[in-house]
Write a structure and sequence with these properties.
Blueprint lengths: L1 E7 L9 H13 L3 E7 H4 L18 H12 L2 E7 L7 H8 L9 E7 L7 H14 L2 E8 L16 H29 L1
Parallel strand pairs: 1-2, 1-3, 3-4, 4-5
The structure holds flavin mononucleotide.
Length: 191
């Protein structure tokens, strides 16, 4: 089993994407490959990056950084569930990534974007790719969900049509495949 962290990347109190992240985490819990944790950046509440040393040193002064480092270090892989703001990814997601370095290295990440508009936030995923490359995160499959504000039921649960559910499973499967490849590679290197 791989420890998968689903990261909800909006810090807005009434995030329309939070039910989507919760739904993705539920799907992941049904997936035999994953032991799943949902992390909501609105609850993590990281301040703007304020560490004196470069993250690659792993030398942290603040307790919130040490806690964030321990959380991300414990994960094997991720799915980022990310809003698009003004054509890009959320500042909270960039800040959460910038805090750390080694903790992200070589770990697969599935990317699920969303937006009000018809793009479903696909441009935000493209904007994120060079950032992921810098910290060594390995992008797996992606999915973009348009019209996010119209996808909740009256109890705030995410409503997914069968095709979307199939696509979300595809993202999880791609992360599972990347984990398998990573384990095979590590086995080869050790052997
Ligand atoms: C600051 C800001 C910028 C936005 N920019 C876009 C945009 O460029 N394209 C789009 O389709 N929707 C845009 N939206 C709408 C968001 O995609 C939509 O409100 C979504 O629910 C935001 O995610 P959240 O509620 O989980 O924070 C923007 C919303 C905010 C708050």
């Amino acid at each position: 089993m791989s420890r998968l962290y689903v990261v909800s990347a909006s810090t807005r109190p009434a995030s329309a994407g939070r039910p989507l992240a919760q739904w993705v985490a539920e799907l992941a819990r049904e997936h035999q490959e994953f032991e799943t944790t949902l992390i909501d950046l609105a609850e993590v509440r990281l301040p703007f990056h304020e560490e004196p040393e470069h993250p690659s040193t792993g030398s942290y002064v603040h307790q919130h950084t040490k806690d964030w480092s321990a959380a991300i270090d414990a994960a094997d892989c991720f799915v980022f569930v990310m809003p698009m703001y003004n054509g890009g990814f959320s500042a909270a997601l960039k800040n959460a990534i910038d805090y750390l370095y080694k903790e992200w290295q070589s770990k697969p990440v599935g990317l699920i974007s969303y937006s009000s508009g018809t793009s479903g936030g696909a441009p935000a995923i493209e904007m994120l790719r060079p950032v992921l490359a810098r910290v060594g995160l390995r992008p797996a499959a992606t999915l973009s969900v348009p019209g996010i504000e119209h996808r909740g039921d009256t109890e705030g649960r995410f409503l997914a049509e069968p095709l979307l559910a199939q696509q979300a499973h595809g993202v999880l499967d791609s992360v599972a495949d990347a984990m398998e490849e990573r384990r095979a590679l590590e086995g080869t290197l050790q052997g």
